[in-house]
Design goal:
The complex is a heterodimer of chains A (632) and B (100). Chain A has 27 helices and two strands. The chains are: A mainly alpha (632), B mainly alpha (100). The interface between A and B is medium-sized, with 13 and 12 residues.
Chain lengths: 632, 100
């Protein structure tokens, strides 16, 4: 029996229960409900995926209509799911990583007042994300797309008493709104051009030539605008660093592993459209490559452990888009999967550090933690090795798959940018490791006394994720190391045709592996020189070119630019319209009407003298005039 | 037989007297009487017109008007009495509390 449609049910039900009854349930029950529902979803996902693998390639993956939703004339949108290999991969990541993070949260959030509220939002998020990846049409996907945005807002602003958190939630919501407007327009363009919002219909229109190239480009670019918002790509990346105001497990689940990858998933889902357009794919690749380098340079100088990871996430998402843009959609998804493991591992380990250090975020006040938090240190180190692309760890394989696709596709500039990004990635990650975990202890004495390793509810997920981050790369071993070893790409082949990724020869494959490895080694070596061998070097470097250092520290001032170019003029214009139009015209008209009525009333009131004779006179006059009018 | 026009002339004169009295006098009872005179002038006009047309309906209406006028006179005089008791005055100029 196909149970794939049951996957979102349990988290949705649990979210519903927690929202309605959450306040009156005991913490124990909330814990079991929240984690249990995701565990149920995960087991359904696993069963469905295994079933799919057993029936590999033989079925065209029919969409399963659960409910007919909107039917108006020719237009129809149903609540319908399609469980194909791509959806299977996403669902496994969402429920698998989601389950681990739910368990971790029970430890991390144990003393929070809004425990039930937290898990209600987290379950609702899981539900929405599952809807997003299982939907078989754009309309339902958009529902999930907005649902995860809502949960992101709720969870970033979880500590809403803190002004910064409330503001960050608002910012994330507003920036996403801009992207979502593009996304919605893209859906409308496809609806007009294809006449249906079903993914399969769009694919058919593309392969059957029923859609013009210019229309396809327009639709693809508008959809990508939505992806830049959700996946924090330039120019809409500004919300993600601020989103770190939310609880750390939220950063791990939503702002690293799952929600922010929705854009990548969407592009991979629409691979036929992007490949057909060509121009759109080029834009995706260029934006991705630029973002990858841009965000990595910012991460070089940040001092907030979560902000470093946030910029790193933006950069890694850039890699995924780079992969999709050069036609290696499977490689993009591969990196999505490995990134979900190692980045959520890094975030959870960072959360464990914060937990131990009474909420300390600044790496300048850490140092020497490897002896005090051995488990956390090991987990963080494995995550770092994976993201830096050290051979045999997962990030190495996925990054190599993207870079070699860029190289083989002839995009040398993009490849070089990716390579530069790899050096930067290794550098800032090992800088983080060296500053936080090695060297002398720079913690304040009162914090130092209370350092403790996290409870097992937090360390067990760390251990499992460490294993995944280390080994997940083995599902995508490049062809040169073994025939038929790239399991993931072959699994995805029915959805993402392999033909679109040209292969480099075996010798250039080795060359690429070598360059990628040396890039990682270079970054690691430089970080060692800067932060281990000669610790005075970074300060001298900063003094040598203070302008650059300041610009990087300020994240290129993008926020300030938006503030000056967009926010302030907008606020000014609203202020002006408020004063002139609202207060002047609208309120003026309303108050004027009132004043006119009062004035007329005062005039008419003077007729009412209270003297009977005046009334009688009026009566007589009126009757006389009336009679005269009738008779004459 | 007296022509209908004469009746009509009498009615008009009566009505005019009533109106004049209403505006000239300042005490409520007299003004009230003036209203009654106007009412009866109207009755007379009714009958003067009804006779040549031999319309029974008009005579019925006049009977009704007399009845209603009687009731109205009772209520009106009672109101005037109450006003006098409360305000010790029946001058219509003194009763101006309904001024807007």
């Amino acid at each position: 029996m196909d149970a794939s449609w049951l996957i979102p049910l349990a988290p949705g039900l649990s979210a519903f229960l927690l929202i309605i009854f959450g306040r009156s349930l005991s913490r124990r029950l909330v814990t079991w409900l929240a984690c249990g529902s995701v565990a149920v979803a995960f087991s359904f996902s696993l069963l469905s995926a295994l079933r799919l693998r057993a029936a590999a390639g033989s079925v065209p993956y029919p969409a399963r209509i659960l409910l007919s939703w909107i039917r108006a004339g020719d237009f129809r949108a149903d609540i319908s799911f399609r469980f194909d290999p791509l959806a299977a991969v996403m669902v496994l990541v969402v429920t698998g990583v989601g389950l681990l993070i739910h368990v971790y949260s029970t430890g991390y959030m144990a003393r929070e007042k809004g425990y039930a509220r937290y898990f209600a939002a987290l379950n609702l998020f899981t539900f929405s994300m599952l809807i997003l990846v299982l939907a078989s049409n754009f309309i339902l996907m958009f529902v999930g797309w907005e649902g995860v945005g809502l949960c992101s807002y709720l969870l970033i602003g979880f500590w809403f008493e803190k002004p910064a958190a409330a503001k960050a939630g608002m910012k994330a919501f507003l920036v996403n709104r801009i992207g979502d407007a593009g996304f919605l327009l893209g859906i409308l363009v496809l609806l007009f051009a294809v006449g249906s919002a079903e993914f399969s219909a769009v694919d058919q229109a593309v392969s059957g030539g029923a859609i013009a190239k210019s229309t396809a480009t327009l639709a693809a670019l508008l959809l990508f605008a939505g992806a830049t918002g959700k996946s924090a790509q330039i120019p809409l990346h500004v919300w993600l660093p601020d989103a770190m105001e939310g609880p750390t497990p939220v950063s791990a689940l939503i702002h690293a592993a799952t929600m922010v990858t929705a854009g990548v998933y969407m592009v991979a889902r629409m691979n036929a459209l992007y490949a057909f357009s060509g121009t759109a794919a080029g834009v995706v690749a260029a934006v991705g490559a630029f973002t990858a380098v841009f965000a990595a340079t910012i991460a070089l100088v940040q001092n907030d452990i979560k902000r470093i990871l946030a910029y790193s996430t933006i950069s890694q998402l850039g890699y995924m888009f780079l992969g999709c843009g050069v036609g290696a959609y499977a490689a993009g998804i591969f990196h999505l999967v490995t990134h979900a493991f190692f980045k959520s591992l890094l975030f959870l380990a960072a959360g464990s550090v914060m937990h131990a250090l009474s909420g300390e975020l600044d790496i300048r006040r850490m140092g020497g933690l490897r002896h005090r938090l051995p488990l956390t240190y090991t987990a963080f180190l494995i995550g770092t090795l994976a993201i830096a692309g050290i051979p045999l760890f997962s990030g190495f394989f996925s990054k190599d798959a993207i870079l070699s696709a860029a190289y083989a596709g002839g995009h040398r500039l993009l490849w070089a940018a990716g390579l530069l990004g790899a050096v930067l990635t290794a550098f800032y990650m090992f800088r983080l490791v060296f500053l936080a975990f090695h060297g002398g202890e720079r913690t304040t004495p009162e914090v130092r006394d209370r350092i403790h390793e996290s409870p097992s509810s937090m360390t067990v997920p760390l251990l499992i994720l460490s294993g995944l981050a280390a080994m997940a790369g083995w599902i995508g071993i490049p062809a040169v190391l073994g025939e038929k070893a790239d399991l993931l790409r072959r699994f995805l082949a029915p959805v993402i045709p392999v033909i679109r990724t040209p292969h480099a020869g075996s010798s250039s494959e080795w060359f690429l592996i070598l360059t990628a490895t040396s890039a990682a080694g270079l970054g690691l070596g430089l970080a060692w020189l800067f932060y281990q061998r000669w610790p005075g070097l970074p300060a001298r470097f900063a003094a040598w070119c203070p302008g650059l250092h300041k610009i990087l520290l300020k994240s290129y001032g993008v926020d300030e630019i938006y503030q000056a170019v967009l926010v302030r003029p907008l606020v000014g214009a609203s202020e002006l319209t408020y004063r002139r139009f609202d207060l002047g015209l609208i309120d003026g008209a309303v108050n004027g009407a009132g004043a006119a009525t009062r004035f007329a009333g005062r005039l008419a009131a003077s007729l009412q003298t209270g003297r009977i004779k005046d009334y009688a006179l009026g009566f007589l006059l009126g009757t006389t005039i009336f009679l005269a009018w009738i008779l004459l | 037989m007296i022509p209908a026009g004469w009746f009509f002339a009498v009615a008009a004169i009566l009505f005019g007297l009533g109106v004049t009295a209403f505006f000239v006098r300042r005490d409520l009872p007299t003004q009230f009487l003036a209203v009654e005179i106007m009412l009866n002038a109207a009755n007379l006009a009714f009958l003067a017109l009804a006779k040549p047309a031999s319309a029974a309906a008009a005579q019925t209406i006049v009977l009704f008007i007399i009845t209603v006028a009687a009731a109205e006179a009772a209520v009106g005089l009672a109101v005037i009495l109450v006003v006098f008791r409360r305000r010790k005055s029946v001058r219509s100029e003194d009763l101006r509390i309904l001024k807007g």
